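Hi everyone,

Forwarding the result from last night's run.
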Amino acid sequence: MTTKVTINSLATGVPGLDDLLGGGLPEFSFNLIAGQPGCGKTTLAHQIMFSLATQERPALYFTVLGEPPLKMLRYQQQFSFFDATAINRSVRFVNLCDEAMAGDLDGVLARITEEVAAHEPALVFVDSFRSVVLASKEEGNGHAQLQRFMQQLGMLMTSWQATTFLIGEYFTDTDANPVFTVADGLIWMRQSVQRNAMVRKMEIMKMRGQPSMPGLHAFRITRDGLQVFVPAKVAPASDADTASPRVTMGVPGLDEMMGGGLPRGYSLLVAGPSGSGKSILAAAFLQAGVEAGETGVIAAFERRPTRLRNPALAQAIAQGRIGLVESHAPDISIEEIMQMLSAEVRRLQASRVVIDSLSGFELALGPSFREDFRESLLRLVTSLTGMGVTVLMTSELEDRYTDLRFSPYGTAFMTDAIIVQRYIEVDSRLRRLMAVVKVRDSAHSDELREYAIDDSGLRIGQPLFGQEGLLGGRPSTRGHSPPVEAV
């Protein structure tokens, strides 16, 4: 019986990339990093090289007709991953400009062979390999020569047991090219300008022997290099635990309406029109957790929590008991926000998360990421609740008085509980009403309760109907009050 060959996986040192590749980079693989100018190919190659290169596993970086090594290093050393002490020790740069300008692929291959034999590298980079391709086209039979060159280079690197990267500028992935055929891995980097934002995405078009993640995935270039934002891992569905412990909402009377509080690990949607007190309820939810000795995280996309009329919440944020996630980047993706939330949850070991609000959340995303907002939000909520976190989300709704909706995104189905807030007109005044519409696998009140907002927060009052209720036991026929059946 034939024994399977074990292929070691190398950690690239690029956050998110190993997950995208299916577990890391296969050792001794022959890879192509492709994309248009300026999308970060060289930065990605350097980040991988400095992460992997050691004196026991040295790297050779060949530059062709691109920028000279000294100029390249001048800019690359601005990144935190750059290690100046590794130059000429574990990392060595070689300029192939003369060989490439001569258009002689045999000369290029001979020089690469000479340097590989002299230094015995475990990692080899050729940047930009597109220059070799263009040089070969000057010959009458350039395509055949390039194919032969690629086969010889691949055999050379395999015999030397080197993990190889070819960096090239390509504008389309539809061209027939022997480089694409020979490569074991093909990492395609894309960028586009959308409104005032530069959106960068990465695709693993090919990775032999590994279950790489399909599709386009956003990445960002920072002072630390590239960071790839992969979709949040969705926890497997499990049967609801009706005996799960409850958490208090922090609003007197609301726990009673919800059948004893919100079950821990549930997701709650608080929907209502502008000014109905959604953010105040969310702040009370976080503050109740702090008072119970828990930590929390708030993702704020409208007002900063410190501007709410809740000095205790502002103090909890200042003390680090509540983490704050916010971003004003015009090209942010929901996966990036998910990573920021997850990092804060793990850092604080938080048990409560607030997203305020879904409307601001959608507007905060880059234009290209809004099309999949509903599907991405489902992954985010499922991932958070899978971590055991209790999630509260607010949703802005236009109060139409004649119908009842819970979310403009059709996201009510993905939440375990729903609280709706709305206005009615009584005696020429707007009054606020609240109802618990849903608490999955739990009994809850079906009453419409009036509530008020004052300096102490939300105060829940009497039911809409009844002897002491707002409408004195009979439905109102004044103004635009909806019939109770609508709720």
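Residues 305 and 311 are 10 Å apart (CA to CA).

Cheers,
N.
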